[in-house]
User: Fold this.
Amino acid sequence: MSTFDAVVIGGGPAGLTAALYLLRSQVRTALVEKLAPGGQMLKTERIENYPGFPDGILGYELSELMNAHVERWRTPDFTRINDDVRQLIPGGRSHRLLVGGEWIETKTIMICAGSSYRKLGIPGEVELTGKGVSYCALCDGNFFRGQSVAVIGGGNAALEEALYLTRLVDRLYLIHRRDEFRGARCYQDKCFIHPKMTVLRSTVAERVVGRDAVTGLSVRNVKTGEERVLDVQGVFVFVGFVPGADFLPIEIERDAQDFVLTDQEMQTSVPGIFAAGDIRGKLTRQVASAVGDAAVAASSALRYLETYEPA
Ligand SMILES: Cc1cc2nc3c(=O)[nH]c(=O)nc-3n(C[C@H](O)[C@H](O)[C@H](O)COP(=O)(O)OP(=O)(O)OC[C@H]3O[C@@H](n4cnc5c(N)ncnc54)[C@H](O)[C@@H]3O)c2cc1C
Assistant:
């Protein structure tokens, strides 16, 4: 069984930052990423609020820069594993992880597995995913050039993605179940005056219509009860996130939504296991906060390793 001093689970901004800090301190580290380095940044067109880039930076460019920064500090002991962590068994002095089909052992773990899109749970959504229902404007927006789409959600992701889609589509319905949007004022202002956008407040999506492809979206105004079917070919859903916590054992405490609980030093309920980024139970889920969490988590892990005594 391969053994490490630290294993970082996830190669998004949190995981890449944690790896950078650990490598600069010459810790024998494995970085496990099931897809590609960058995490959700790869699904973001332009990031305008990460300090140091006054003109904004494309999500994939920031991913490449963060990954190159890790490579710059590569040590002979550094291992990248391109697979998914399926199980975590906490132990007293060391912990075991099932990665792909193999077990590895480590003194500390950084859980940086982020989150994925929450589904609406309405009829037609699952059946028509990939056939008009999407959770990523950057990935799928091009399929809807010159067409009509609906964007569902009221937070930053929904507003940002809606604005991006207006460059491609002819008409866009922005649908939110409440009157007030949660997204940043600057995005709201741009959306509400956009000539291609129709904003439907207090409105819920009830059914995605279509057999082999989306042909409409059935919606209902929750105040008036009025129902209508929007003539759209695409439905983009941005209604929040669920943590990537499936592989975590009950020993690692979570909140009611399954996000991992930590103290201020990013320590979870299990000594030696830390968490950083979007997988944590917290209010703000951004690149800057993921990076900040990870700097703290890795520093805490370094302190933990300094006092580590083998059994
Ligand atoms: C559309 C969109 C727009 C956004 N725009 C902005 C913005 O403008 N500014 C901003 O600051 N933030 C933005 N964000 C949010 C930002 O991208 C996230 O807050 C940030 O990426 C979180 O970083 P993370 O490292 O915690 O998690 P993630 O970026 O989610 O990375 C987690 C990584 O872990 C991997 N992983 C998960 N489970 C496992 C497993 N079991 N085994 C191995 N690997 C695993 C995943 O493949 C992923 O690569 C946006 C997000 C989205 C979706």
Summary: DSSP finds six helices and 19 strands in the chain. The domain at 2-116+241-306 is CATH 3.50.50.60 (FAD/NAD(P)-binding domain). The first strand starts at residue 2 and ends at 9.
